[in-house]
Structure formats: C-alpha cells, structure tokens
Design brief:
The chain has about 260 residues and is of the alpha/beta class. It has helices at about 35-50, 75-85, 100-105, 120-130, 145-155, 185-190, 200-205, 205-220, 250-260, and strands at about 15, 20, 25-30, 55, 90-95, 110-115, 135, 160-165, 195-200, 225-230. The strands form 2 sheets. It has an 8-stranded parallel sheet with strand order 9-8-7-6-5-4-3-10. Strands 1-2 form a two-stranded antiparallel sheet. Bound molecules: phosphoenolpyruvate. Phosphoenolpyruvate binds near residues 32, 58, 167 and 202.
Amino acid sequence: LVSRDNHPVRSTVRVGGVPIGPDTVTLIAGPCAVETPQQTLEAAQMAKAAGATLLRGGAFKPRTSPYAFQGLGEQGLRILADVREKTGLPIVTEVVDAHDVPLVASYADMLQVGTRNTQNFALLQAVGAAGKPVMLKRGMSGTIEEWLMSAEYIAQRGNLDIVLCERGIRTFETATRNTLDVSAVPVAQRLSHLPVIIDPSHSGGRRDLVLPLTRAAVAVGADGVIIDVHPHPEQALCDGPQALVDGDLEELARIMRDFPPLL
Ligand code: PEP
C-alpha cells in the first residue's frame, strides 16, 4: 500500500488543511513537551514567526528514564487545543499507548508515533484506524525496509495519510545524539509514495546542529522538517539543549524561504 510500485505519483498529506508533500517544504515547530500554557503559547508564536504552519508539542512523552518528566497527558492536550485556537496552527502530537489513541485523536490534527514505538504493531493498527493523519518516526535502530513495513501496518487499517520522519539512527558515533541519515530521504521517497520529513532536533540533540541539519534536510529534498523551539530552554523539562531560541528564528525562516521546493 505504501510502495511506489503501485502508486508512482508521490502523495501529499493534508493536516488541518496544511499540505506535506512534494510541492512544498513544510515547517513543523514547537516545544518538545507541553509544560505550561504560557510556555506552549510562546513556543507556538516563535514557531509561527519562523514560518511554521503546524505546531508540534508532546503531551505524552516517551522518556528513557521513568524518573524524567512524562508529559502532562490530557491536560497537555487541552493546552495544545487552546494554543491552536489562539494561533490557528494545527497540532501534531505523540501517542505512546494504543489505549490512548481515541483520546489523543480527539484533540490532535496529526498523530505522531515516536522512534521507540515504530514497531509497536498494536499502536500502529490503532492509529491506522483513528481517522487522523499520522507521522511515523523511523526506529532509531530500524532499517528503511522495517520503517516502511511499519507504515504498511497503518495503511492496512485504511489510513494512507502517513508522513515518514527520519530522526537519526544509532551508530558508533557519540558526538551527536543520533546520526542523521540524510540518504534515507531519497531512498524512502524512491521506494514509497509517502512524504518524508526530517527531525534535525532529535537527530543531533544539539542546538548548534539544528540549522545546519535543516539545510541538509531541505537540500536533500525532504518534504518538511520538524523542529523543537522553546522560549526558555534552560528551564525546559525535556530536551532543552536541542531547542532553538528566539535568536535562531530569523535564520530558520531564511533557510525555509531561500530553498525553493525541488519539483
Ligand atoms: C519527539 O519528537 O518528541 C520525540 C520524542 O522524538 P523521537 O521519537 O524521534 O525520539
């Protein structure tokens, strides 16, 4: 279902009316985690100022440590819905448990499946049946073939509104949190008709790498990027070191503006 063999034309997925696909480079930005109404609104305003047309923000956070901030849950979803109301930005947010899919889908414009859940097949089937577009991250140790098979689980449930997201993979390198596999973009685009975007924030895990990796994403032909921004990253409850700050936004906007879509 997701293979390009049976569907030669590359697809565009619409999220609350915003297209992600071959004719555009969509900027999705926002906080890694929803922390407070004020922080989420400020991050959304930062995102909008940089040209983002979709707001990201996690209410359910899949953290490596059980002692780390796990997200605000439904309270976080309510904050996101309120910020959507105020900014007009449709919401992309993660769901980590199949049982929470109806709840998260009742607020979200797009459901995100994170790298740790790329082969959680019950979750994939549940989001496939939820009637909302899905962003599917690549497993941090997953091959492109495995990633596409995960997308197939979603598609099998009748949902072809899937966006693939390369977010870095595990390699021997320790200088970066993950190694961004830029080649995954053209490879996945050749094998699948689904749009492919890049997450330069979770790939590098470092603020100073986000803009260079965004340039790489756009240059390699990614259909979009998803980027963490935070008004006060030093106080962030999740992934502060990779969040862009106010001073980065002009350059981010310039990158998105100056790279014409590769048609
Ligand atoms: C995220 O985008 O908030 C996230 C946790 O990403 P990943 O699943 O790629 O680690």
